[in-house]
Amino acid sequence: MKIVTVVGARPQFIKAAVVSHVLRERHREILVHTGQHFDYNMSEQFFQELDIPAADYNLGISGGTHAQMTGRMMIALEEVLQKELPDWLLIYGDTNSTLAAALAAAKLHIPICHAEAGARVHSSTNPEEINRICTDHVSSLLLASTASGLEEMKKEGLAEKGKLVGDPMFDAFLLYSGRLQPGEISLTLLGGGKAEVPESFYYLTCHREENTNTDEPLQEILRAMEQLDAPVIYPVHPRNKARALRLKEQEGFERILMTEPVGYLESACLVKHAKKIITDSGGLQREAFFAEKKCVTILDFVVWPETMVHGRNELSAPRTEEILKKLSNPQKIEKSYQPFGDGHAAERIVAALEEARP
Ligand code: UDP
Asked: Which one of 232, 276, 330, 347 has the fewest CB atoms closer than 10 angstroms to its CB?
């Protein structure tokens, strides 16, 4: 079969890394990078470290409003799809790249396989929710990472197209998280200089629009971090670099190591060795779960309900006291509870494409 895979953002590179290797054993894959994430440490570093095949097309599209970005991607992707006429379009997750590819392919009657389908956060203000819903409704094969994805599909009349395959992020974490040791990582500090990974540390990522579009939420989060009993490593997303640096200038935040984004091998290693995780990322809260680390998620909606058990992942508002309180709550680990599959989601995704072959 000929499969066009469209990726554009950091978490999609990670998923494509594990799936592409399996896919290419038996099929022809054309990889399209929309350009949504373009900095070296948000894109190229992932291709190099995870040995992702070079993109056949790089559309170089990023920035602008949601509609501008999505519209420009649709126009460019339509051309690629018309030229390649694949048996399948394969897409991951919930970004504008995902939605643009889905809409372009649907109108060309190209069958669409959506991996990480059925994820819902039930928030009308979350921009990615619209991408998730629209993408699932125009796709013909919906591959869920967890059982809750299938449940959500049922509610929307999509169950017939759904299949549970497990989470390719879990595959990636098992495969890559032991590749580096903390001593091998050199952190590039925002504003210049290098730092080693401290003996004991917390790991923070924070980049959602909800938490970084104004000063206040980020300020509250950073004030909580400053009070913890170990330093905090915080790789800053390019989107909020200016704000983070300005807040640091205003308030010092001496215990927070603000760094440039790190590669996936580094990030997975930091998850594995951190005391606890604080994040607003869908990917990172799952990785905290995989590594059995206590996680506090700074959002007002649940992204992965499977992680929200036994105190393992708790939601917090971006309020200093609440974050500190939730972080101090204990968690209980039940080893037999493995809702994200067995680390073989990539094989199941490829098998599902073969079975449903159009
Ligand atoms: N990540 C990374 N470098 C960083 C921060 C995060 O490689 O500096 C990884 C993280 O380990 C996870 C993924 O990026 O695997 C999460 O991506 P992101 O937070 O951009 O998106 P989301 O998961 O929220 O969709």
From this structure: 330
